[in-house]
Amino acid sequence: MTATVAEARAELLAKTTASQRISEDRAELLNSGLAANLEMPHPVFIQQGEGAYVVDADGNRYIDTSVGFGLHILGHVHPVVRQAIEDRTPLGWMFGIHSTSQMKLAHLLQEGSPCAERVVFCNTGSEATMYAFRAARGYSGKEKIALFDGFYHGAHDYGMWLTDPRSPVDAPQPLPMGHGIPQALRDLTLLLPYRNPAAFDLIRRHRDELALVFVEGVQSSNPQPDAGEFLRELAQVCRENDVLFGIDEVITGFRVAFGGAQQRFSVTPDIATYGKVVGGGLPVGAITGRADLMNVFTGLAADRGVFSGGTFSGNPLTMEAGAAAVGYLQAHPEIYEQLENNGNRLAGAVNEFCLKHQIPAQMKNVGSMFHMFFQRGEINSMRDAGAEHIDAEKAFYLHCLNRGVLVPGTQRAFLSAAHGDTEVQRLIEVFQQSLLDVYEEQLFKL
Ligand SMILES: Cc1ncc(COP(=O)(O)O)c(C=O)c1O
Asked: Where does residue 5 rank: exposed (0-12), middle (13-18), buried (19+ CB within 10 A)?
């Protein structure tokens, strides 16, 4: 039986009364905007996580495809990570001064990040990318940073750029993402076209001003299985033009392979940034890179030294949780095979269904990272992504939620090692049925 959007909405309203109460109360108190529920199709507040599932304030259980915005690669409350947190807490969880807990995770990062001759810890992915930009500027003495259309590198002012849709595909121009971003920073940003050789010409042309070319290992907004070819060419062009090359592994690190995008695509940058998986579910950021470049972090007295530091950087609780999670991944390489197979099975089944029913939608995935696009045809960069079927897209996510599948409002979705055959099969069924419902209600503009 197909269901309409109105039916799905009514069902959700009836079963999420506690979430709605919280939603109304918090509107009077918490103005956390985008960062709150990231435009979920319907507000739900999560009470509990367990493996591949989360439970909301009303006791509804969902298969979770957010897994903490990609970080719980082992699933929620994994026993090994939980034990590490429990073992650390009686000893104290925060000292400010460096603790005995940092070395284990630093060694694991060195083993899982091909460019990592040195490691610096901080507290979020945003902080890691901010420091990478500062290190590149300090080291090179140049000030411009090149980023790619469709990127996300965190919430600091240096990365708050969208592509002006009116600008040429070969020469994208940045627009600030909201107010409060100084115009002067726009002049320090060079936007490059993603997966487009015009980027190489722009790098050559701006080589004398460019401190760093910075790119996600795989764009989470646009997970392309063949992202590696472009990365390798970029690395080469940067090398030839004496421009530092950085890979943002905040999402891809320890996810698309133990060695992240660097291992998966055989590319080694000068510097890489981490977050998410590395903290075992607690707040974390890290920067890894070539020893001579990373030397700038050793203090202001160092050659071209930059400032770095932070009250919570490298705190023992995060370090222990991170070492437990990353150590477990290292000891269980079969997890990557499972993530890969399950991601491909899910995307394969959804795409086959769309073709069979002529539904203009497709799923892109790189292993366990996936993203639905509501359009047909090739999608090379986010410049190709349209909003033609936005009603269908919104209705699809509402149906999924009503059927017990939580896709984050960012629509950047993930599987974890806790998503087994049962969960993958259920995801396939829910995605297919929800696509069909939307199609039969004629919400696609055909
Ligand atoms: C590629 C990438 N870089 C940086 C960040 C920022 O990380 P955080 O949210 O921990 O600040 C994110 C967050 O999703 C990300 O996807």
From this structure: buried
**Dihedral angle sign, alpha carbons of residues 355, 357, 358, 364:** negative
Task: Determine the distance separating the centroid of ligand 1 and the alpha carbon of 84, expressed in angstroms.
Answer: 24
C-alpha of residue 433 to centroid of ligand 1, in Å: 32
Indicate the pTM of the whole model: 0.97
The CB density around residue 240, as the number of other CB atoms within 10 Å, is: 12
Q: What is each CA distance from 429 to 1, 348, 423, in whole angstroms?
A: 13, 13, 10
Our answer on whether the CB atom of 222 is closer than 6 Å to any ligand 1 atom is no
Interval between CA 124 and ligand 1 midpoint (Å): 7
Could you identify the atom of ligand 1 that is nearest to the CA of residue 275?
10
Q: Which protein residue has the closest C-alpha to ligand 1 atom 3?
A: 153
pLDDT in tens, 57-109: 999 999 999 999 999 999 999 999 999 999 999 999 999 999 999 999 999 99
- Which residues, other chains included, contact 33 with Cβ-Cβ below 8 Å and sequence gap of 6+? none
Residue 50 backbone dihedrals phi, psi, to 5 degrees: -150, 110
Start-to-end C-alpha separation, the chain: 22
Alpha helix ranges (H) inside 315-418: 316-331, 334-356, 390-402
Tell me which CATH code domain 79-331 carries. 3.40.640.10
Report which ligand 1 atom has the smallest distance to the Cα of 217. 1
Rounded CA-CA distance 24/7 in Å is: 22
| Strand boundaries in 111-249, DSSP class E | 118-122, 144-148, 161-163, 174-176, 189-192, 210-216, 244-248
For ligand 1, what atom is nearest to the CA of residue 216? 1
Task: Note the pLDDT tens digit of each residue in 380-422.
Answer: 888 888 888 999 999 999 999 999 999 988 889 999 999 999 9
Q: How far apart are CA 64 and CA 40, in angstroms?
A: 13
Buried residues in 126-159 as b, exposed as e (16+ CB within 10 A): bbbbbbbbbbbbbbbebebbbbbbbbbbbbbebb
**Cα–Cα distance, 370 to 353 (Å, whole number):** 16
Q: How many CB atoms lie within 10 A of CB 353?
A: 18
Nearest to 68 by CA among 400, 360, 418: 418
Model confidence band, residue 24 (pLDDT cutoffs 50, 70, 90): confident
